Amino acid sequence: MLSIKNLTASVDDKPILNGLDLEVKPGEVHAIMGPNGSGKSTLAHILSGREGYEVTGGEVKYDGEDLLELPIEERAHKGVFLAMQYPVELPGVNNMNFLREALNAKRRAGGEDDMDAVTFMKLIREKAKLVQMDEKFLKRSVNVGFSGGEKKRNEILQMAILEPRLAILDETDSGLDIDALRIVSEGVNALRSADRAIILVTHYQRLLDYIEPDHVHVLAKGRIVRSGDKSLARELEERGYGWLEEDAA
Amino acid sequence: MSSKTVESRSWFEQLLQHEAPVTNEPAVVDEERLAARAAVQELPLPGRRQELWRYSSVSEIFEQSFEPATEDLDVELMAESGDWLLPDTQAYRLLFVNGRFAPALSNVQELPEGVRLGSLRTALHADAQSLAIWFGQAAKHDTHIFTALNTALMHDGLFIHLAAETKLDRPIEVMHLNLAPEKPLLIQPRNLVVLERGAQAELTERYRSSGDSHYFHNGVSEIVLEEGAELEHYRLQMESNKAYHLHQGFLAQGANSRYRNTTLALGGKWSRYDLQVRFKAEGADCETNGLYLVGEHQLTDQHLDVLHDTPHNSGRHNYKGIAYSSGKAVFDGRILVAKDAQKTDAHLSNKNLLLSRRAEVDTKPQLEIYADDVQCSHGTTVGQLDPQQRFYLQSRGLDADTARKMLCIGFASEVLESIKREAIRDYTLSRMQGALDNVIEKLNEQ
Ligand SMILES: Nc1ncnc2c1ncn2[C@@H]1O[C@H](COP(=O)(O)OP(=O)(O)OP(=O)(O)O)[C@@H](O)[C@H]1O
Ligand SMILES: [Mg+2]
Questions:
Q1: d(CA B129, CA A100)
Q2: What was the ipTM of the complex prediction?
Q3: Which residues pair with B353 in a beta bridge?
Q4: In which domain, by residue range, is B194 found?
Q5: What is this structure's pTM?
Q6: Where is A242: in which H helix or E strand?
């Protein structure tokens, strides 16, 4: 589904990704861990099309197509979704309208009609319940005045409504209290299916207790330096990254 | 005197020649007109060197000749052919065409006791003496040359009078329609709104024009709120790309009166709204909200002049603007708190969004405080759309244009939400969306 080969990228001529390889198949959950500044968010941003990164080499194929050639919104229409590490605030943009526009944009791109208002309301209520988000957040401006954890839940709500095929969650667990972590995990697990894939960027084993990954990778200095199964995450929890970074150097 | 000033003086004089000095109006009116006529010949001419005219040049207006609009056109017939329906059918409706009341297309029947709604001309003819305590009091003809011009050649305009304690059960909706299909016209509505003690009303005024009507609108509104009166006032201006629109509002607030206004300026070649706020006593509250959108070859200007010279009055003034292409927006807001105006609460904010490099914003919020026990603030910003926000929206599947539009509406939403009546808010939002569609299209062409 997603195939990244020898990807190199830089920001302002500073290399950040240095030959990254990753294969993700439908139905899989991949966890990416790694020290601060190793390039995890950079990878997530490049996959979703954010400007400001220069891809200097390698390739990214999504369902056999060159992902990097696609405009940002087309990636979204084709099922790529990034839950951001730092969700952006949109003053004056009503959360409910935003969700409706996003959903309908995707439907239109897929040749469907806009969802009628009644069905949409039912859908949004159901999904808000899933992530245990009070409906008052739907009436507010997107993320404005939301607490850190509320912003993360709002990301998961968007994900639940847009039902992406490839969801990339960039530290969605950071800043969540224990209950919220469980709720968010349930939201993610509800999305798991044979034709969808999930990439979890996280620093903590805790999340992986709730969402069991099929593969765990360590990203250091812009490359995947170690891959394994869920036991790798436990090993990292005990030993830290030092022993791996030496390998990467 | 340079030749330029001579030319602009003669521009005014030529206009005065279109009419006899005295026109058989009630004595009060004829006296005002005569005095105003003299003032037009003496008052300083507007020009770049005057602070009031520094950013919005009037020379373009003086280069053109306009003829005062007369009743020759069959305005009602013309108005009937257009789609000028007002959004709220429950409202008392008034149509003014080229500044003159068009009763056939208005709906002011069955007015409650204590309410007068309609033509200022008719009201003055019926009862000039009792109107004289308000008419020409807030808008002095001897201060601004354009006010003097309006007074010198005034014919008609909106008149609202609510007697003490009259609370209007339905909103008032006024369409000021300007039609100048052939020659360039001078259109000069003269409006007078008086709410006596404890009266309450809601007023929506729309300024529109047909096709590419070419005219200079030089309007004056006097709004008098006596003790405890409350007025909710919406002003929506959207005119042709050949329209020059200058309108001066003069607001006089009595003790504990309340004025809430939202002004939307969406078009015209050159448009400027000046609002002057004066407090006559204590305990009054004035809230003004403004939104302007300006593009290719357009100029829009909002002037606000608030004088707190009595204590215990409050004012909140929030203006937002969006400029694109070669559009130019001006905001000049001045709040003066005099020495004796203790416990004044005054806040002024102006935020602007520049959508293209050629667009220009001149913003000048001024706060002058001479009292020591007050709560005042002012702030201004000029910024661009945030690429992070645009990315966020696009990453959720919205195309770049929709994303931009959503962010612009988001930027404007604070002002849009200050419109309490839903029908007006929706109408305004849809106009704004329509205007933004054009904006985005133009941006893409660049
Ligand atoms: N726009 C930018 N300008 C300059 N440097 C950048 C920019 N974006 C990323 N970087 C740098 O690239 C490196 C990788 O950043 P990235 O955000 O991808 O790290 P990360 O692995 O997500 O870290 P964390 O675990 O702290 O979230 C960092 O050194 C960062 O400072
Ligand atoms: Mg990161």
A1: 59
A2: 0.95
A3: B322, B383
A4: 3-281
A5: 0.90
A6: helix A242-248
Q: Which residues pair with B314 in a beta bridge?
A: B285, B345
Question: Ligand 2 centre from B24 Cα, in Å?
Answer: 80
pLDDT digits 0-9 by tens, B28-54: 889 999 999 999 999 998 887 777 887
**Closest listed ligand to the CA of A33:** 1
CA atoms within 13 A on the CB side of A203: 12
Interface contact A101-B402, CB threshold 8 A? yes
**Number of domains making up chain B:** 1
State yes or no: pLDDT of B3 exceeds 80: no
What CATH fold (topology level) applies to the domain A2-248?
Rossmann fold (3.40.50)
Give residue-wise pLDDT tens across range B326-336. 999 999 999 99
Q: How far is B247 from chain A (nearest CA, A)?
A: 30
- The answer to the question of residue B127 being in a domain is yes
A237: left (phi over 0), alpha (psi -120 to 50) or beta: alpha
Q: Specify the ligand 1 atom closest to the Cα of A44.
A: 18
- Decide if B310 is inside a domain: no
pLDDT for residue B81: 65
Instruction: Give the pLDDT band of residue B108 (cuts 50, 70, 90).
Output: confident
- Checking if the pLDDT of B4 tops 70, the result is no
Is position B123 within any domain? yes
The residue with tokens 């005045």 is A145
Do A105 and B394 lie within an 8 Å CB cutoff? no
